[in-house]
Amino acid sequence: AGTTASIMTGCQQALQKNRCVLIYPEGTRSEKLLPFRRGAAVLGQQTGLPLHPVVIHGAADILPRMQPLWKVRPGTITLQFLPTIPTDDGSDSETITSQLRSTIEAELETGAEINNQPAQPPPTDVIDALQPSDPAGIFYTLLASGLTAGGIALSIQESWLAWACGQLLLAITMIQWWAILHEAGHKTLFRSRGMNRWVAHLAGFWSLIPGDCWRLVHARHHYWTGWQDRDMTTETLVPRQLKGYERLVINSCWLLWIPMFATLYRLNNYWNYPRLRKQFADSADQRLLRNNIVIYGISYIAIAVALGPMLTLKLLGAAIFITLALQDLLVLSQHTHIPMELAEEREIRPFTPAQQEVFTRSLQFPAWFSRLILLNLDAHGLHHMYPRVPGYRLHALQERDTLNTVPWWAWVIGARSTPGTVLLFQNRDQTGFYY
């Protein structure tokens, strides 16, 4: 420890005594190389000694990023020594540092093992056995219906404590309805196609998302995942120069837990008919989308008129705000702040389900919450790899953490400590924030 000058002096003295100096110019377990610092190059220039690049393999297999020390696994770490880089050829420190980084990067790109390599896919017969189940679909639908009824019953009570518990229960249940909508939209909640369709409408009602709009848009999302400007749900977050008022609004809402993103996510992707009409050229799809939006909208207005504004606000106001605030974090966790590709005007091919793992983040919740409330929607990387496997069966394939898997609390802390504009419009390669 000490000042930069004293550290450099100590390293230089060690080299003059024919000792080795080991320098980590950036993170040792980063998923991708970060910008290198110039200390090693400066020492090489001062002493005239060459640099010896070393690539570390296997560290993430023994202790994955964001995992506590008690989860260390048995394994092997391999050090690969690359050809030396001269420092006495007149190159400046930045050039030497760039050469050092590119040498290591080239080795990683030749096929060497890197942190968190994707696992081998399970046997086909195992995947084929994980089919939708009507009893399972009925169980989740009845569970959500019962919790919804309980939340409403508590919310109409005069006791403020009962009301608060009811609103919190409704907020959590609306998240569950969203997970059910997701499952029914994939036609994996029930074996019956008709049951999936009807429950998708019921779940969509409680999720504030028209069911058929969800089904079509979400299918398009899976098709284009990884191409940020082709995926309807991510194209609005393509990096761009933000105006001053945009930065102010986004950062303020994110700081104050105002659920702007979950709200705009719904309005822009599932309620914005002019945008949907441009995305779906088929006249039958356009008619389906338009009718869905109109029917859902009339239903919400009719209920609000029948109950009156005060009772509607009492029964649903706080619950909707809470669920949207929580869903801000859930929705953004899935693909935000992860490096993606830009198609721009090029002719490109969609990424396969297996390739989509690298563009997807998974969260780790307690098993009971993940399976009962989220239907394993938090295992989002696994879901993108096997989109036809029912979510409530995904844990049978969870032999290891998929890429970009973090504990839910680590995501919440990391995301909430980051300005909204940085979280939304940049990625971890630019910021170094690996959550």
Distance between the termini: 28 Å
How many helical stretches?
Answer: 19
Tell me the domain tally. Answer: 2
- Cα radius of gyration in angstroms: 26 Å
Major sheet attributes: 2 strands, antiparallel
- The percent of residues in helical segments reads 55-70%
Shape: elongated
Strand content: under 5%
Structural account:
- With 435 residues, this protein is mostly helical.
- The protein has 2 domains: 4-109, no CATH class; 125-431, no CATH class.
- Helices cover 55% and strands 3% of the residues.
- The protein is built from 19 helices and 4 strands.
- It has helices at residues 4-16, 39-47, 59-62, 93-109, 124-129, 134-155, 160-185, 193-207, 211-224, 244-255, 260-271, 273-279, 283-307, 309-335, 367-372, 380-385, 408-416, 420-425, 428-431; strands at residues 54-57, 78-81, 362-364, 405-407.
- It has a two-stranded antiparallel sheet with strand order 1-2. A two-stranded parallel ribbon has the order 3-4.
- Helix 9 crosses helix 13 (283-307).
- The two termini are 28 Å apart.
